[in-house]
Amino acid sequence: MKIKKELLKIIFLIIFINIKTNALALTKNKIVASVDNQIVSSYELKNKVKTILFLANQSINQENVDLIKQKALQKLIDYKLKKDQVVKFGIQLPNSFQVNSHLNKMSSKYETDIAGMKRIFQTNGLDFEIYLDETRTEFSWQKLIYEKYQNKIFLNEKEIEIELNNFLESQRDLLEYKLGEIELPLKNSLEDKNTLTKINNEINKFGFTNAAIKYSVSSSSSNGGDIGWINSKSLSEEILSEINNMKVGDVSQPIIQTNRIIILKLLDQKKIDINEVSLSKLREQIVKSKKNQLLNLYSNNHLSKIKNNALIEIK
Fold this sequence. Notes:
Elements: H1 2-28, E1 31-35, E2 38-41, H2 42-55, H3 62-88, H4 97-108, H5 114-123, H6 128-149, H7 157-170, E3 173-185, H8 190-206, H9 208-215, E4 226-231, H10 237-244, E5 255-256, E6 260-273, H11 279-309, E7 312-314
Antiparallel strand pairs: 1-2, 1-7, 3-4, 3-6, 5-6
């Protein structure tokens, strides 16, 4: 009987300690924002801040945390909104090729593979599973936007053909540019000017790649803003005019568009003998680029509409 009483005491003590530990964990992991029926926890916010700073290769100190905290929170809110839409419409990626391709590209920067990247995250106290879900959600969101708006994308085929043929007749060589981008939402306020000043300081101090990871709202931000090789003919006149005045390594002035601000970096450029590029392939690149521009516009507008209709409370 005495042994049973001692055993009961131990059980009660364990239960009490667990309850106290859980209560303490709850006080530390607070709700910092609610997004309709979802929440953003202090754990998620802390992890997001640390992840952004880590990928930007910057120190996790109070100054950097204060600088990036609001941007991290907005990224989490966008993620929650996108996640809700993806689940609501039952969007599933047909395969994990896009996700794995993204993770492999990121891992290669650290001279490792996906498994090694997981270990690096763990070593630095970062939640890899959250990052993985954010990546999956982003690609699922892109699929949702495509399915929703693909029938609204109209390109004037005749104009594309005329434009392409004129170019081929007047140009012996074809230019391609490797570009980096930083994309910001256009708010038409003093905040835009302040943000651009911060980004300019960031680029000068830490480099374009780090600034893109830290500030860009584009999905390319996780790649340091790298959007790869772009055919010169697939760029808008406004952007091409800016790039034509740049040398490799230069960063453009802010380019104001309908609802966004773009800053570009010319990473590299090359000439391709026009005889080596088939007309059909070049045409496909132009059409794909123009479609992506329209889809990006639809994506930003759709997210803004959802955000305006959502009940978002910052605690």
